[in-house]
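Loading example: each entry is read as two labelled lines plus one structure line.
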Amino acid sequence: MEYYLGLDIGGTFVKGACMTAEGNLLAEDKCDTGCENGGYAMCDNIAALSEKLQSKIKGQLSGVGVGCPGMIESSRGVVKFAGNLGLSNFPLGDELAKRLGVPVKVTNDANAAALGEARFGAGKNFKNSILVTLGTGVGGGIIIDGKLYEGGSSAGTEIGHMVIERHGEMCTCGRRGCFERYSSASALTRYTKHAMEEDAGSAMWGKYTSDTCTGKTAFEFMNVDRTAKEVVDWYIKYLACGLINLANIFRPEVIMLGGGVAAQGERLTKPLQKIMDKEIFGGNDYAKVLVVPASLGNSAGAMGAAALCLD
Amino acid sequence: MEYYLGLDIGGTFVKGACMTAEGNLLAEDKCDTGCENGGYAMCDNIAALSEKLQSKIKGQLSGVGVGCPGMIESSRGVVKFAGNLGLSNFPLGDELAKRLGVPVKVTNDANAAALGEARFGAGKNFKNSILVTLGTGVGGGIIIDGKLYEGGSSAGTEIGHMVIERHGEMCTCGRRGCFERYSSASALTRYTKHAMEEDAGSAMWGKYTSDTCTGKTAFEFMNVDRTAKEVVDWYIKYLACGLINLANIFRPEVIMLGGGVAAQGERLTKPLQKIMDKEIFGGNDYAKVLVVPASLGNSAGAMGAAALCLD
């Protein structure tokens, strides 16, 4: 039996998942990234993880795919720059191929997650889909005709850095008013904190302080507290604005939401769908765009990375 | 010799161009759209135009491509809706194939122009390009790996309807702050008019009134009149904002500018390039995005339509 190894590199751990071409998981495990000792040490750790996983499976490892944070030049398997990992111009694909003895493909971690969801998760019945990840920032990946679209020079697709409010809030990228300044989990937390500080009578104070509130707080209290409801409505309007921009540009069949905020499920997707249906260009009869939660959770990245070997 | 016919349907005329697979033009002509008599009459006119063109060429017509305004379902060659032509759910591809006896492919007119520029014009040395047309609205087409990307259900790519200023000006699409409200030729004319009315001493009054000014007026006076310069700077900043959004999402190698405003050439592209280089995500060393004027003028649409037959 042939199988594939997908690796999802994070700031602390590397997740590994072995699966068949059909997406059946055979084994999963993780190791420390160990990148404080440099990229070569990280590759050694990954090689050990790979051996451990292979020892559990009868069959032939036929390819390895990697999702890695940062700027990736996927055609050469090079990490151009990954600040959290301390890597720059590191030949990740070649170094892993040396150690593992099979071809290695590398893409950005957000792209890998999008491919995983598109092939095996919430997008599996659609040819054109977008995964939008609502976390510390807003990331995402775009699937066109069943294939990952990486942007020219595989430098795209920085959907979080689409300005939706010129003269808006300053973004880390140097521009003002980027989508992720309004729609990330961090933005939601920031607005919850601000709203609590403005409303001493908010029910949210019964359980949280303005320092302990998170992106979940406003959703938790939205049915009993007017201020919490306002925060949620505010967040959803900005998120809808960015999603409709993407829908007008790509007209995918489905937009999948990942990251912590997406755990809100229908409390998030139902009002988003309503705004999408109303405001999308040309109306909804033309070609509906569904908004759904992603379904693979933390496995999306490793599964999508493995799927890189399947094309 | 095999050749192809490209048709570019406009509000008044249908332009036809016969060319070889290499993009060599063999003959060009046009006819009245005649759509006031309905879609079938328009197809009859086009058939007559085709015969006229064929009579001038020795060779074999091997395929016909059409660029048509409005919402096109390209997989079936159907015009879902084209307000200016008075067509809805019209089987344009089938009706033309019946009359012309060869396969007919249909796409949106902006897409056809993008394909024309990408294959034979300003984008011919690049695999990933975007044509942004600055006319009455802002339209465009996206070329990925040398192929036209039409969006899921070929309903995309409505790049003019990307919100860049939430709570901004009301757009015809029902949302506020769309890119085309700020970056179309119409927007430029509107702001020139407004600026003239605010500045009775502007040198622009020497040649134009606030009713006769156009999208060219501010460019014409930018070197001698402060108000004109301000209008141009203002326009370029908004245009840059939308173009950088597209660059961050698609990271094409080149963005080509078409439509009337693009005739300003370097007066437009030079300052745009400067802002692009400074503000694009991840910086310019990573993967530069060039901003250039389109080069085929009014022939782009028909040539790109013919190119539909070449894939």
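Chain A has a mean pLDDT of 94.
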